[in-house]
């Protein structure tokens, strides 16, 4: 059984509800019992959805494993161990003279998120930006897949992908996305200037409303039989092209 277990767990209906009301930004994910009818559990579920917090159903056995006790009352909340930054904070003290950011629309695989954070740190990117309530939480799997990079990379959380891209435009940061049907080769885009690389969800790619805010959509040439690259590999290609250009 694949279990997300951490010492940073809050369990019990009253405790989780209080946390949800007082510090919702600290919650990565809430697990709740199948077929629940308790009014407080329903209140927690409704509140979590309103706050766009990731939720998941779990059987009693899994809840007990996550909480480390059988006294969880049908609900557990995973608390973030990550310090999140705002885009304002990142851009106020960039690592690069021309900031470089990676924006993830909502990846479901924590291994992909961790691998992208690892590569972003390797090229000294300024931040990795996540969207609240979308994709996998930043959990122990992400920590492991990042090979320690998560401790060094600044992570931002935004409520809306579209509003975040609008904000980046206001700050004169170009937005680049990858698509296999694009006409522009990735190495023909000018990544020496301030750049945000946007990566879509596994399988479905970047949402149409986000594409409207992309200054360039680029393609990575494919010579073999496969039609596309894994999203973390795509991130690696684009990030290292950006570093290559900046080192010229």
UniProtKB/TrEMBL annotation:
<dbReference type="InterPro" id="IPR029026">
    <property type="entry name" value="tRNA_m1G_MTases_N"/>
</dbReference>
<dbReference type="InterPro" id="IPR013123">
    <property type="entry name" value="SpoU_subst-bd"/>
</dbReference>
<dbReference type="Pfam" id="PF00588">
    <property type="entry name" value="SpoU_methylase"/>
</dbReference>
<feature type="domain" description="RNA 2-O ribose methyltransferase substrate binding">
    <location>
        <begin position="9"/>
        <end position="85"/>
    </location>
</feature>
<keyword id="KW-0489">Methyltransferase</keyword>
<dbReference type="InterPro" id="IPR029064">
    <property type="entry name" value="Ribosomal_eL30-like_sf"/>
</dbReference>
<dbReference type="InterPro" id="IPR029028">
    <property type="entry name" value="Alpha/beta_knot_MTases"/>
</dbReference>
<dbReference type="GO" id="GO:0003723">
    <property type="term" value="F:RNA binding"/>
</dbReference>
<dbReference type="InterPro" id="IPR004441">
    <property type="entry name" value="rRNA_MeTrfase_TrmH"/>
</dbReference>
<keyword id="KW-0808">Transferase</keyword>
<dbReference type="GO" id="GO:0032259">
    <property type="term" value="P:methylation"/>
</dbReference>
<dbReference type="InterPro" id="IPR001537">
    <property type="entry name" value="SpoU_MeTrfase"/>
</dbReference>
<dbReference type="GO" id="GO:0005829">
    <property type="term" value="C:cytosol"/>
</dbReference>
<dbReference type="GO" id="GO:0006396">
    <property type="term" value="P:RNA processing"/>
</dbReference>
<dbReference type="Pfam" id="PF08032">
    <property type="entry name" value="SpoU_sub_bind"/>
</dbReference>
<protein>
    <submittedName>
        <fullName>RNA methyltransferase TrmH, group 3</fullName>
    </submittedName>
</protein>
<dbReference type="GO" id="GO:0008173">
    <property type="term" value="F:RNA methyltransferase activity"/>
</dbReference>
